[in-house]
Amino acid sequence: MERWKGRVALVTGASVGIGAAVARALVQHGMRVVGCARNVDKIEKLAAECQSAGYSGTLIPYKCDLSNEEEILSMFSAIKTLHKGVDVCINNAGLAHNEPLLSGKTEGWRNMIDVNVLALSICTREAYKSMKERNVDDGHIININSMGGHRMVPSADEHFYCATKYAVTALTEGIRQELREANTHIRATCISPGIVETEFAFRHHNSDPEKAAAVYESIKCLKAEDIASAVTFVLSAPPHVQIGDVQMRPVEQVS
């Protein structure tokens, strides 16, 4: 991670869970991290904790609604003005709604596509543009995916969400291929966790907290820090090594 000291990383969905853990880990390793979310109160608190801990990097909170392209473009413009550009883009933000394929509401489907697929694609495009403008040839795009992007969960509540994550699997490989066609050494990686104990299930099952709690009580789950460790592992790989897809799940997880 030594070569990333002082470099700029964007982490989307950095207020809680995996995003917060990744942001903290990168700041520990000396990176300047722009952490974005719709609500930055928790990111501001995390930034203060990182500073108090004496970490060599810095965490810069940025308020951004990723379902709004204009806000994303404004964020990248601000990063260019204040920090020159993005060297590492961690597309972490994602959400799920209980909207089955046969009875779900279009609004919920659209929101999942906007955040899980379109925002990821827009951030990737803008991050690559930023790297290209500055002749950065060793940048990295990391998409936080899901095991739901590799097999369909047998639950109607999850089917549309899984479809968006299958899209992330395809997009990551497409990004890798386009980066090769562009004759660049910028890398693209997909990290696909199984069940991770975060606020995700409580947001997904917001009308049934007992169901959400049961998700995490059934087995020993992954922790957000486990995913952060996978991110630093990927970033630490030698520049000639392309890590395409990291699939990780709890030992006790069946599928």
UniProtKB/TrEMBL annotation:
Keywords: Oxidoreductase. One of its GO terms (molecular function) is estradiol 17-beta-dehydrogenase [NAD(P)+] activity. Its EC number is 1.1.1.270, 1.1.1.62. Pathway: Steroid biosynthesis; estrogen biosynthesis. InterPro entries: NAD(P)-bd_dom_sf (IPR036291), SDR_fam (IPR002347). It comes from the Eukaryota. The keyword Transferase does not apply. Coiled coil: none annotated. It catalyses: 17beta-estradiol + NAD(+) = estrone + NADH + H(+); 17beta-estradiol + NADP(+) = estrone + NADPH + H(+); a 3beta-hydroxysteroid + NADP(+) = a 3-oxosteroid + NADPH + H(+). The keyword Acetylation does not apply. Catalyzes the conversion of the 17-keto group of estrone, 4- and 5-androstenes and 5-alpha-androstanes into their 17-beta-hydroxyl metabolites and the conversion of the 3-keto group of 3-, 3,17- and 3,20- diketosteroids into their 3-hydroxyl metabolites. Exhibits reductive 3-beta-hydroxysteroid dehydrogenase activity toward 5-beta-androstanes, 5-beta-pregnanes, 4-pregnenes and bile acids. May also reduce endogenous and exogenous alpha-dicarbonyl compounds and xenobiotic alicyclic ketones. Belongs to the short-chain dehydrogenases/reductases (SDR) family. This is Dehydrogenase/reductase SDR family member 11. It comes from Amphiprion percula (Orange clownfish).
